[in-house]
Structure formats: C-alpha cells, structure tokens
Amino acid sequence: MKKKVKVCHITSVHTRYDVRVFIKECISIAKADYDVTLIVADGLGDEHIFNVNIIDVGKEKGRFSRILRSSNKVYKKAKSINADIYHFHDPELMLYGLMLKSKTRKVVYDIHEDLAKQLEIKPWLNKFLKPIFIKLFKIIEGFVAKKMDGLIVPQPYMKHKYLKYNSNTVLVENFVILDNKNPEIEVDYSTTTAFHAGALTEERGLLNMLEVYSKIKEPNRLILAGNINSKTLNELKNFEEYDNVDYLGLIPFNEVSKYYKTSSIGLILYNNVGQYYLSYAIKLFEYMRNGIPVIMPDFGEWKAFNKENNCGINVDPTNHEEVVKAIEYLNNNPEEKKKLGANGRKSVIGKYNWNLAENRLLNLYQNL
Description:
single chain; alpha/beta; Rossmann fold; 2 domains; six-stranded parallel β-sheet; 14 helices
C-alpha cells in the first residue's frame, strides 16, 4: 500500500475552523487522500475531525506574545511532525518557513493579504517608524518568497505582484463552497433586513454602516456578526443608540447561514484604504451564493466587478445619504433585488465557486 504524503498546515493566528485554512484547504487536501495535520494556537485542545488531525499548542495573550511565543511553539511542533509538505498561513511564520525547508521537505507560503498595504493602516504602528517597518517587511517577504517551493495568493492582483519573486505562485481565490448539487434557494425579498458577517473595524466599514442606520427609517434593519475590539465596542455603547441594528457578536460558522436566509441585502462599505480596493472579498461571494444583492464600494475593482456580474449597487461608502437611498431603493423594489440576487447566484455557480479554486490548490500539491 502506497504511503500517504504527509502535509502539515501551520498557523499561530487563525482559529482551527477558519474558513480558508480549515474548511476549504485542509478538508480539500484530506479528501484528496493526503495525511493532513493542522497546528493551531487557540487553546481549545487537540482534535481529529474530517480526517484532519488538529494539534493545539496553547493560546498566548497579546499581539507581541503571539508573534514571539506562539510562532515558536507552532514551529517546534511542526518540525516534530516531520511532514513532506509544510503549508503556513501567517507572515510571522516566514522565517520559520525557511527553517523548515530541506532537500526532502517542501514549504508553501499562503499569503492571505497584501500585508505591506495593510500595514499602512495599522494604528499600533508608530507613524514615524511605519515607512521603515514596511520597507523592511517588503525586503524580508521578498527574500522568503523567492526561497519557497510555492506561493498561494487569493487575489488576481496579488498573483501578478508575487510572480516577480516566485514563478510557482498560484491563485487560490476565496470562492465559496456550493450547496449540494446547487439547489435553488428561497429568499424572501420582501424583508427589509440587511446583513454583514465578518470582522468589524472602521476600515471595514463599521462606522459607515452605523451612520447609515442612524439615518434610515425602520423597518429597515441591519444584522452585524463578527469581532469588534473591546475599545471600539465600549465607544459605541454596545449599539444602544442604534435601535434598528442587531449586533450578534462572533457566531459559529454553521449559524451564519440562517441569518442569510432572513436577509435580502448584503453590505460591504469598506473605506478606500489598504487593500480594500480589491473586490475578491469572501463576504462578497457569500452574499452572491445566497442570492442576495450587494451594496458595495464604487472605487478600485468593485465597479468593474459589478459591471461584469450585475449583482448589486455601487456606492460611495462615505456618502451615507447615497447608501441610504440605495438601501431604500432595493427595499422598495423587491423584483430588482430578486434580479440582482439571481445574477449573483448564477455567477457563483458558473465561475466563483470553490471547486475551481480547489483544483488549482491540488494541482500545486501534485506538482510539488
């Protein structure tokens, strides 16, 4: 009997059930008959699920403790696994990725975001030292990228950027997993509820959404689900002043779908900072899969994406009156919502689904 190729995914940042890391990549690789281990640092203990062996090295408190101690812990555990292929997901693991390379071990760096762009908007970086830090990061990342056996990126723009470092750069988009046999879905387009799932920060449009729903009249409602840092949450007084906003906190992945079923509009009101001009956001494809129209930015790639797929309305996220008008227009025209939602669903089934991205991931593994 042929021995299975041993694969070890490593993260010191992401949770064990992270959609991209675990639900899409690890499970897909395990189904393709690889022996898969995922090493995490979330403090929830070891587990074996969906043919993936999850090993937990324990959770550290604080950003810098995580960067220094958790990274070292997951590296040591990964080394002890003695895998054939290592696949890491966090920039703080770059140097450890180099240390894991050998003549018999292949190492893949999964670059989830254009971090050099994102560092420009990180508030914890000293504004005077930030340019130096970003330049240093680019030098280190470029050096590591050249040494890797493969790079994985989620955005077409990023593939062009990283090909200059490594010719084995593969595009594996954050496309959605389709329902079994792609059944028709039922959406109540008469409801006036909008939904936003995902991390909630100012850059990702939290304040834009709250400003919009402080101006819009009921019965228009907004459901928010995701992490908000404690400082921001305290400043917002737990949303007490927003009568038509429901904040659910962080909810399990398998519970998100029920809120899509009770909503008929998806919101993406990112500010034009960092890499948020790029359109391939996970939540965009989730809205489209669920057949609901998307109110999305009018800058960067977003306008061209919507022109191609006709799945929503482009707005200036900082022009709150314009956003209010877009929401009210859709809620007053359920047939338009249905048309845009159907267009989005059709596009996901045809060209933005995980089956297509999964094939590129597995081809990379086979070539290694």
